[in-house]
Amino acid sequence: MANASGFLTPTMISSSIGINRSGFFNPDAISKRVRCSTTSQGVESFSPPESRVPNPRLVSKGCKLVGCGSAVPQLQISNDDLAKIVDTNDEWISARTGIRNRRILTGNESLTGLAVEAAQKALQMAEVEPDDVDLILLCTSTAEDLFGGAPQIQKALGCKGNPLAFDITAACSGFLLGLVSASCYIRGGAFKNVLVIGADSLSRYVDWTDRGTCILFGDAAGAVLVQACDSEEDGLFGFDLHSDGNGNRHLNAAAIQENGSDHALGTNGSALGFPPNRSSFSCIKMNGTEVFRFAVSIVPQTIEASLAKAGLGHSDIDWLLLHQANQRIIDGVATRLEVPKDRVISNLANYGNTSAASIPLALDEAVRSGKVKQGQTIATAGFGAGLTWGSAILRWG
Q1: Which of 45, 122, 263, 376 has the most beta carbons within 10 angstroms of its beta carbon?
Q2: In the chain, what is the straight-line distance between the N-terminal and C-terminal CA atoms, in Å?
Q3: Active-site residue 353, yes or no?
Q4: In the annotation, is 323 catalytic?
């Protein structure tokens, strides 16, 4: 079965011979299906697939991370600054979250500008010219245009070949989904250099009178350049991705219609409410207790699943890099996975929760400081609104 261009797509191949989500061939998929159970209460009863020794990968190309970059706004807001506008203090915030500062977009700064700066730094590190970029994936839930922001990044970078650029919306899991998507495009054989950018400005959707949420979020952008390589050099060893819409009630920013008078088309009242009122979005609403329970339960499970698909164990992990949401979550997951504190990457104290930007931002700082070295193995995981979650085991460089 071929697509319109006459080529077999990775999806067609996987459905016919059973390639699992890590990119490994799975003979069991021919005769039976892997089961993931859940309940109407959400993610609490998630059961990961049984671990299996992976078979040789059925991929024509590999992919590797060869460059990274990040950018943050100039304005830094400390816990003491927040204490001036809401009933809180530095001790209360830092003890519950580990956050002490965050960066906020102001003035002439824009999220697109941050994303472009992060992308440029990633390209410079990778020694790749903008014209050599084949695909740009902007992972964001806060694009500055209803129809997405990735094409504007392509324009600003000066990619003369007009490479495809589009947005991926998956909140705090977005960057991880973008990373896995990049690997799939590359392994399909049509792309060589893929820019994956995580960028969010959740400060624009925060209720600054609610001390339960306004203390958590900051704005930032981070990027990586994923490049094709020989399959023997493949740097994405395994991944695991999930979502559960039952958990949406715990974390969301729903679309709302502005108040206005009803309109009627004609005289029979059959079209009351037309034309519709303009829509906007509510501020972020979060049940912190439930999100915390979700994260400390599901993140170790998904990392274990990715390790199993990669055929690796805990001792093979050089670094643990989680979405930077709450230091207690990071510490709890590290403890359950038996990863020493000195092998955990965290910059949460300086930036807060930057959503899709948090993983590439922390990675960029760790690489540029010399902490993460070429050839080291990183276990990374994202989790957030949707609810969505996932993990990947990858090698830097």
Answers
A1: 122
A2: 36
A3: yes
A4: yes
Residue 38 pLDDT: 36
Beta-carbon-side half-sphere exposure of residue 320 (alpha carbons within 13 Å): 25
Token representation of residue 349: 């104290």
Cα–Cα distance measured from residue 294 to residue 44, given in angstroms and rounded to the nearest whole number: 7
SS3 state at 204: helix
Report pLDDT digits (tens) over 15-51. Answer: 333 444 444 434 343 333 333 333 334 444 444 444 4
Write down the residue that tokens 């129809």 correspond to.
Answer: 147
Structure tokens at 373: 């070295």
Query: Which is the catalytic residue, given 63, 68, 172, 184?
Result: 172
**Measured CA distances, 376 to 61, 68, 99, 213, 362 (Å):** 20, 15, 28, 35, 15
Catalytic residue among 26, 250, 323, 347: 323
CA pseudo-torsion sign 168, 170, 173, 177: negative
- Known catalytic residue at 68: no
Q: Which residues of the chain have pLDDT under 50?
A: 1-59
- Rounded Cα gap, residues 134 and 159, in angstroms: 9
Q: What are phi and psi of 349, to 5 degrees?
A: -60, -30
Is the peptide bond between 340 and the residue preceding it cis, with omega within 30 degrees of 0?
Answer: no
Which amino acid is present at 341? Answer: K
Residues in the chain: 397
Backbone angles phi, psi at 331, to 5 degrees: -65, -40
The answer to whether 178 and 389 have CB atoms below 8 angstroms apart is no
Q: What is the DSSP letter of 38?
A: -
List the one residue out of 182, 80, 94 whose CA is nearest residue 138: 182
pTM check: above 0.70: yes
Distance CA 10, CA 22 (A): 13
pLDDT in tens, 316-356: 999 999 999 999 999 999 999 999 999 999 999 999 999 99
- The span from the CA of 176 to the CA of 139, in Å, is 9
- Pick the closest to residue 47 from 233, 244, 180, 187 (CA basis): 244
List Cβ neighbours of 189 (8 Å cut-off, separation of 6 or more). 60, 61
